[in-house]
Amino acid sequence: MQKIQEAYEQLGQKARAADVLRSVLKDSDNTTIRNAAYMLLADNLKDTGRADEALELLRQGLAENIKATK
Question: What is the pLDDT of residues 10-40, one digit of tens each?
């Protein structure tokens, strides 16, 4: 996923990378993949001036992980 994000960034299409990462979150149930997608998407949002959205996404991922451990 990181390489996909890097490729879109090199093409100047950071928004497209965000779309791909959101799709991963929608389609994957794998905790490891979801954690990586949450972090990469949050970085993408922060880098594009959407820090508030990035924080909310990270909170969502944290809540998901806490729920999974109960």
Answer: 999 988 999 999 999 999 999 999 999 999 9
Report pLDDT for 53: 97
- The number of domains in the chain is 1
Report the CATH number that the domain containing residue 16 is assigned in CATH.
Answer: 1.25.40
Enclosing domain of residue 39:
2-68
Indicate the burial class of 29 (C-beta count within 10 angstroms; 0-12, 13-18, 19 or more): exposed
How far, in Å, are 12, 17, 50 from residue 7 at the CA level? Answer: 9, 8, 20
Alpha-carbon separation of residue 26 from 10, 38, 55 (angstroms) = 25, 11, 18
Residue 28: predicted pLDDT = 97
